[in-house]
Amino acid sequence: MEFIDLKAQYAQLRAPIMQRIQAVLDHGCYIMGPEIRELEGKLSAYVGASHCLAVSSGTDALLIAMMALGIRPGDEVITTPYTFIATGEMIALLGAKPVFVDIDAETLNLDPVLIERAITPRTRAIMPVSVYGQCADFDAINAIAAAHGLAVIEDGAQSFGATYRGRRSCGLSTIGCTSFFPSKPLGCYGDGGAVFTDDDALATAMREIRVHGQDRRYHHPRIGINARMDTLQAAVLLAKFEIFPDEVVARQRIGERYTQCISERCPSVVTPTVVPRNTSVYAQYTVQVEDRGEVAQHLNSRGVPTAVHYPMPLHQQPAFAFLGLGPGSFPVAERAAGRVLSLPMHPNLDTPTQDLIVETLRQAVHTRREAASA
Is the pTM of this model over 0.90? Predict the structure, then answer.
């Protein structure tokens, strides 16, 4: 059983993927080839943003966004401790300070109620993460940002294709960023990412930053980085994008069925909460359980792969020890980190396999409860 079955997806798309790759090999423009502009046009139309820039990774997308906003050493960026390290890492890499705010207990996204008290004169931006494939509460976050003159950067690495009040992830804030890492809802065959904005000046700045701060050949008005997407990765994404809307529907159907089946058969397992204003692309299908290690071991021993996203909040990572935030600083994030368990999830997950996963989970939870009561 595959945790994410990229092989099945490739089997379905082998011909168009190979045609797209062959076209790149034939024209030989491996960096910033015509597929890059074609991809950017399709992605910007899909998201509903005026500008899209294909970049080398989701991590670089975050870095480019903050560089375009002029975030510098000594500035502060408010974000969540419950995310992959790239979110906080890019803030620190610029010499800015990540200011963590705890998460909502239901969605596990940044809790807007707690943001305002974290704002200081040094705050320059808010960076919510749309975790597990569901957008954060952007109306509330954008309102707070507007009241304080702050930018909002969505880390939508897990949520491309999801909607918030009918609008798509990455088109909800000042700048939206996403990742096309192979395991993401829309993934390439290597690293890749994109940034989105409606702001013309920011788009110009980000385009320059993407190519070493260059506005024309050998003329560099700003410091930039090398963050171009390879043309071959754009070719793969163009082929995969043709079926992506159908995959989003499949992900939602499979995620909703997971929730229904687990709620019926394993009522002690906490299933994801998708709030009514949102749709989720279920980048991961993540439940919460007691005695996670034992439950995961039972599943794995019976051929059901699992993963933990994420076992340690950022404030507890050794790299962020300089912030001086000990255990108990963000109790909701810390509690989630000790309980979350991700189950196999991909758009080709069939009903019999899903039923087997749910039944194995039920057995694992039942066995743990029996052992605890013995």
Answer: yes
